[in-house]
């Protein structure tokens, strides 16, 4: 039993650098997501201005906006998970101890988050490959090619999967007593 505890403790400690690398990747993509918000707003405003002032419009500009929205969501989701700002069903999470929260996050990640990400990667990767192979483009006049935005699906779920692994490593380390979670749980306002 003592050997198992020592092995788990050592394994968690050795994986902490991996979690830090994943966290840095998620933070970088979170910054990119933030910039995509600004770019989408500027493109939307520019498109509306040109449409009303010059009576000119292009489907490419409209599609570019939803491409950016997809990038915001799918590239920013890992960062949202990292900073503990994701949607959570709080039935009893707010009334239990930090240790119990770590266990809930660890088990929830292993049972729900990671399998869901794997299923989504499994289903979206062939969709991307087909779109890329066919060089699929929008059916709208002047529309964009579709495979880049479809690629965001498996990439986004892979990033969430990686961040989920990072969070599980950190929760296991916190249970072992050598990691203090950076982003504490905040009870939602009612």
UniProtKB/TrEMBL annotation:
Tripartite ATP-independent periplasmic transporters DctQ component domain location: 42-172
Family annotation (InterPro entries): DctQ (IPR055348), TRAP_DctQ (IPR007387)
Function: Part of the tripartite ATP-independent periplasmic (TRAP) transport system.
Segments passing through the bilayer: 29-54, 66-83, 103-125, 145-162
Keywords assigned by UniProt, alphabetized: Cell inner membrane, Cell membrane, Membrane, Transmembrane, Transmembrane helix, Transport
Summary of subunit composition and partner proteins: The complex comprises the extracytoplasmic solute receptor protein and the two transmembrane proteins.
UniProt subcellular location: Cell inner membrane
Keyword hit for Cell inner membrane: yes
Entry keyword Cell membrane: yes
Bilayer topology: Multi-pass membrane protein
Annotated Pfam families: DctQ
Name of protein: TRAP transporter small permease protein
Family in the record: Belongs to the TRAP transporter small permease family.
């Amino acid at each position: 039993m003592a050997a198992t505890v020592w092995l788990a403790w050592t394994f968690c400690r050795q994986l902490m650098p991996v979690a830090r690398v994943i966290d840095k990747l998620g933070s970088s993509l979170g910054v990119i997501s933030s910039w995509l918000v600004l770019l989408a707003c500027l493109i939307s405003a520019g498109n509306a201005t040109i449409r009303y002032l010059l009576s000119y419009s292009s489907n490419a500009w409209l599609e570019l906006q939803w491409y950016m929205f997809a990038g915001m969501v799918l590239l920013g989701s890992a960062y949202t998970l990292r900073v503990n700002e994701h949607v959570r069903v709080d039935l009893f999470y707010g009334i239990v101890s930090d240790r119990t929260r770590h266990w809930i996050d660890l088990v929830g990640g292993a049972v729900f988050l990671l399998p869901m990400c794997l299923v989504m990667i499994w289903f979206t990767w062939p969709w991307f490959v087909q779109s890329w192979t066919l060089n699929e483009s929008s059916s709208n006049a002047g529309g964009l090619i579709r495979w880049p935005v479809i690629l965001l699906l498996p990439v986004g779920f892979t990033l969430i999967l990686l961040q989920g692994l990072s969070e599980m490593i950190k929760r296991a380390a916190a249970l072992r007593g050598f990691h203090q979670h950076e982003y504490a749980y905040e009870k939602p306002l009612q």
